[in-house]
Design a protein that fits this description.
There is one protein chain. This protein has about 425 residues and is α+β, with helices and mostly antiparallel strands. It has a single domain, classed as Outer membrane efflux proteins (OEP), CATH 1.20.1600. Helix content is about 65%, strand content about 15%. It has helices at about 1-10, 25-35, 35-55, 120-185, 195-225, 250-260, 260-280, 320-390, 395-425, and strands spanning about 20-25, 65-70, 80-85, 90-100, 100-115, 235, 285-295, 300-315. Strands 2-5-7-8 form a four-stranded antiparallel sheet, with no helix packed on it. The chain has a two-stranded parallel ribbon with strand order 1-6. A two-stranded antiparallel ribbon has the order 3-4. It starts with a helix and ends with a helix.
């Protein structure tokens, strides 16, 4: 099934094939990881970071440049006035105009030997950006899995609510039948049917709300995983019998080490250190060697020549402003370290808080199970007492209402536990 799901995504792009509409939770997760547009953009950001890192690596290589041009002057670039004095003819002016057209071309290659470690640190910073991109993809994947589970269990819980409504409808039909028999036997009046009718209408109204909520939830999940909501169905077992939370517990330190957000904060500190080094490098000399080739033709004679050279650049005037930029970078480095520590503390609080929520949600399930058992027995006793004529119809309907509420509360508790557990898996980096 998993293979078929991935193949259908490859062939159809965004919509699951018609034969893959009954999905498990794991299949929904895989579909969401394939289809989610936010995750796609995160992966594109990673691809862009890879290109940036590869571009930074090319700065280790010689920098080659070429230039060329052709010109045509109207009067010539070289102007001169000559005169010749001849006997009996006096002085004769002889103006001269040269270099009216020409061709120029050159190629140079410069190999940096030392650039204040700016190239090295720039490449390390770009490589760090790639690592950050991978962590961001990991974080987005965790968020997508959590949201998928939220949609999944919402749908399952609404289906459970419909099951409860169906059971209540059958109970009310039976009560209505009993009251009708009592009316025909003259034991009660026809007015006793009104509370039952009102209750049936209330249940019918609730059914419409649940069915509409189920439709919307299916549409949300279908859009999230790239499926057709009209035919989407879910396969879920053991919804009201989840595992104890203790099997999912991990220590705080292990959770922090796994958490992408904390590793992103660490990468932020590392990135700022590289920026500080690059600011320091701007104050250091730049040394390079190079070679070039020159060709020109300006007087109908081509001339070419080669050359080698060495260059040293000392940023003297940048020392004044650069020193302030370096101090600022060091301040920002300390700020990044503070942000990392704060992130660790806040993430620790979030993890512990989420774990407490998981435990509370599971405890609610245990309480609601006992509540359902009590409400079920209470409804059975009141039905028997009503048939015996020892309790009123109102008492019976109240017992039925308590039964419905207890079933719905158990369903809500199970859904809350599933979603809180999904969140705990995310905040612990799983």
């Amino acid at each position: 099934m998993k293979t078929n799901l991935l193949i259908s995504f490859f062939l159809c792009g965004t919509v699951l094939s018609a034969g893959a509409q009954t999905l498990t939770l794991e299949e929904c997760r895989e579909a969401a990881l394939e289809h989610n547009r936010t995750l796609r953009n995160s992966r594109l950001d990673l691809e862009a970071a890879v290109r940036t890192r590869r571009g930074a690596f090319t700065r280790y290589f010689p920098q080659v440049s070429a230039s060329g041009g052709v010109f045509q002057a109207q009067r010539g670039l070289v102007q001169a006035d000559f005169s010749v004095t001849l006997p009996q003819m006096g002085t004769i002016p002889m103006p001269l105009s040269l270099v009216k057209r020409g061709i120029l071309g050159s190629v140079t290659a410069v190999q940096p030997l030392f650039a204040g470690l700016k190239i090295v640190n720039g490449h390390k910073l770009a490589r760090l950006g790639e690592e950050v991109g991978r962590l961001q993809v990991q974080r987005t994947e965790a968020e997508v899995r959590e949201q998928t589970e939220a949609y999944f269990w919402q749908i399952v819980s609404l289906r459970e609510n419909l099951t409860t409504i169906a059971a209540v409808e059958r109970q009310l039909d039976e009560i209505h039948r009993q009251v009708e028999l009592s009316v025909r036997a003259g034991l009660v009046t026809a007015n006793d049917l009104l509370p039952v009718e009102l209750r049936r209408q209330e249940v019918a109204s609730n059914r419409l709300k649940v069915e509409n909520g189920l439709k919307v939830s299916k549409m949300l999940l279908a859009q999230y995983i790239g499926a057709d909501w009209h035919t989407l169905d879910l396969s879920a077992s053991g919804f009201d019998r989840p595992e104890e939370p203790s099997v999912h517990y991990v220590s705080l330190e292990e959770a922090l080490d796994r958490r992408a957000e904390y590793r992103l904060a660490e990468k932020g500190v590392e990135a700022q250190r590289y920026r500080t080094r690059m600011e320091r490098g701007k104050l250091l000399p730049t040394v390079g060697i190079g070679a070039g080739y020159l060709y020109y033709n300006v007087m109908n004679k081509g001339v070419d020549d080669g050359m080698v050279f060495a260059s040293v650049s000392v940023p003297i005037s940048d020392w004044w402003g650069g020193s302030h930029a370096l101090k600022k970078a060091r301040i920002e480095e300390r700020q990044a370290e503070n942000d990392r520590e704060e992130a660790r503390e806040m993430l620790a609080v979030e993890i512990e808080q989420t774990w407490s929520g998981v435990q509370e949600a599971y405890a609610q399930i245990l309480l609601m199970r006992r509540s359902v058992a009590s409400a079920t027995e209470n409804l059975r006793q009141n039905r028997r007492f009503y048939e015996a004529g020892t309790v009123s119809l109102t008492d019976l309907l109240d017992a039925e209402t308590l039964y419905t509420q207890s079933r719905d509360n158990l369903t809500s508790a199970c859904a809350a536990y599933r979603t809180s557990l999904a969140r705990y898996m995310r905040v612990t980096g799983r």
